[in-house]
Specification:
The complex is a heterodimer of chains A (112) and B (110).
Chain A: E1 5-7, E2 10-13, E3 19-24, E4 31-38, E5 42-50, E6 53-57, E7 64-68, E8 74-78, E9 87-94, E10 102-103, E11 107-111
Parallel strand pairs in A: 2-11
Antiparallel strand pairs in A: 1-3, 3-8, 4-5, 4-9, 5-6, 7-8, 9-10, 9-11
Chain B: E1 4-7, E2 10-14, E3 19-25, E4 33-38, E5 45-50, E6 56-59, E7 62-66, E8 70-75, E9 84-90, E10 99-100, E11 104-109
Parallel strand pairs in B: 2-11
Antiparallel strand pairs in B: 1-3, 3-8, 4-5, 4-9, 6-7, 7-8, 9-10, 9-11
Classes of the chains: A mainly beta (112), B mainly beta (110).
C-alpha cells in the first residue's frame, strides 16, 4: 500500500512570493492534517481536513490556508512568504478524525 | 496550556546498552499518547499509540508504557539502526490535532 506522498519535495522561494504544497493521502484515508517543523519550534499543527471541511486550525496567521478535494487530496498555500516560513511542511493522513496519523516525507521550503 | 515535554534532548548509547526516554504531558482528557520515530530528512514514522494508564505496547526492541502523567519508551539492547529522533505527541480530543514534544535525539554507537 502506497504511503502519503507530498510534492514537491524541495522548494526555494523568495520573500513575498506565494507557494502551494500538495499532499496525497494513503488510499482509503479521508482525513489530512498539516504540520510545520522547524528546529526551534519542533512540529506544530497547522490545520486538519475531513470531507473537504476544515475541522481544526492551529495558531498560524491567515497567510496559511488549505483545502481538501473530493478525492481527499489536500493542498496548503502560504502567501506573502517570510523568511521565518522556511521549514519542513509535513502532511499526515488517517482513516478519519481521531485515528492514527501516518506522515509523508515532507516538503522542505526555503525562503530567501 | 496543554504541553508535552521530552527528556533527555539527546542520548548517546553504546550498542546493547538499554535505556529509557521520557515524555511528560499536561493534557486534560488525554485521548491518545503517540510515539513516532523520525530519521533525518524524512517524515515521522508511527510506532505506538497508548490510551490509558497502565497500558504497554512492544515492537522489537522498543516498549512504550503510559502513566497518568508520563510515558516512557524503553529501548532494550539497542542497535545502531535504532539511531533516530523519537517524538512523543498527545491528543486531547477526537480531532487530528497532535501536540508534539521536541523529541529525543538518540545515537547508538557500535
Amino acid at each position: 500500500k502506497a504511503g502519503v506522498t507530498q510534492t514537491p519535495r524541495y522548494l526555494i522561494k523568495t520573500r513575498g512570493q506565494q507557494v502551494t504544497l500538495s499532499c496525497s493521502p494513503i488510499s482509503g484515508h479521508r482525513s489530512v492534517s498539516w504540520y510545520q517543523q522547524t528546529p526551534g519550534q519542533g512540529l506544530q499543527f497547522l490545520f486538519e481536513y475531513f470531507s473537504e471541511t476544515q475541522r481544526n486550525k492551529g495558531n498560524f496567521p491567515g497567510r496559511f490556508s488549505g483545502r481538501q478535494f473530493s478525492n481527499s487530496r489536500s493542498e496548503m498555500n502560504v502567501s506573502t512568504l517570510e523568511l521565518g516560513d522556511s521549514a519542513l511542511y509535513l502532511c499526515a493522513s488517517s482513516r478519519g478524525p481521531g485515528e492514527t496519523q501516518y506522515f509523508g516525507p515532507g516538503t522542505r521550503l526555503l525562503v530567501l | 496550556e496543554d504541553q508535552v515535554t521530552q527528556s533527555p534532548e539527546a542520548l548517546r548509547l553504546q550498542e546493547g546498552e538499554s535505556s529509557s526516554l521520557n515524555c511528560s504531558y499536561t493534557v486534560s482528557g488525554l485521548r491518545g499518547l503517540f510515539w513516532y520515530r523520525q530519521d533525518p530528512g524524512k517524515g515521522p514514522e508511527f510506532l505506538f499509540t497508548l490510551y490509558s494508564a497502565g497500558e504497554e505496547k512492544e515492537k522489537e526492541r522498543l516498549k512504550a508504557t503510559l502513566t497518568k502523567k508520563e510515558s516512557f519508551l524503553h529501548i532494550t539492547a539497542p542497535k545502531p539502526e535504532d539511531s533516530a529522533t523519537y517524538l512523543c505527541a498527545s491528543r486531547q480530543d477526537n480531532t487530528d490535532k497532535l501536540i508534539f514534544g521536541t523529541g529525543t535525539r538518540l545515537q547508538v554507537f557500535p
